[in-house]
Write a structure and sequence with these properties.
mainly beta; eight-stranded antiparallel barrel; 2 helices
């Protein structure tokens, strides 16, 4: 009986070890992927983007966005210039989606993806310009304005 069990165990081990490794699935436009699947270079573990965007009732909003791609965590700091209590910090989880408009390899960052949509924020960079992060509307669209709604990657 022990011989039969030993043969079965050995057969299972050989079957498992002889199977070729599966390749990663192909990511298609609109697929949701975690950021650590998008980027694994040590320089890309912490992404920092900064910029000033327009404000309806202040001088401008200074945004600093830190994305920890290893833990899929973010910190978004907004400073409303010319206001009393002017600094607001949001922290949470983020996820990414692949593809935006005609760019199938663009990356959309969804901040607070695990919270209600009213608490989510969206940013995007095109595949040919990862240095420029576009602030998106709550409908995940580019903001149609002559004013600048972009953040620039900070070199660390």
């Amino acid at each position: 009986m022990k011989a039969i069990i030993s043969i079965l165990v050995l057969g299972c081990i050989l079957t498992i070890s002889c199977n070729p490794k599966k390749s990663s699935p192909e990511v298609k436009a609109g697929d949701s992927v975690s950021q650590n699947e998008v980027s694994t270079s040590p320089k890309e573990i912490l992404l920092i983007y900064e910029g000033m965007v327009p404000c309806a009732d202040c001088e401008g909003i200074q945004i600093t966005l830190q994305l920890n791609t290893l833990k899929n965590r973010f910190e978004e700091k907004r400073v409303y210039l010319g206001k009393g209590k002017n600094e607001f910090v949001k922290e949470g989880n983020f996820n990414t989606e692949r593809g935006f408009g005609n760019d199938n390899d663009a990356t959309v960052f969804i901040l607070n993806w695990d919270k209600p949509q009213s608490e989510q924020s969206y940013y995007m960079y095109n595949s040919n310009d990862t240095e420029t992060l576009h602030v998106l509307s709550p409908a995940k669209k580019l903001i149609d304005s002559a004013m600048d709604y972009t953040l620039k990657k900070k070199i660390i």
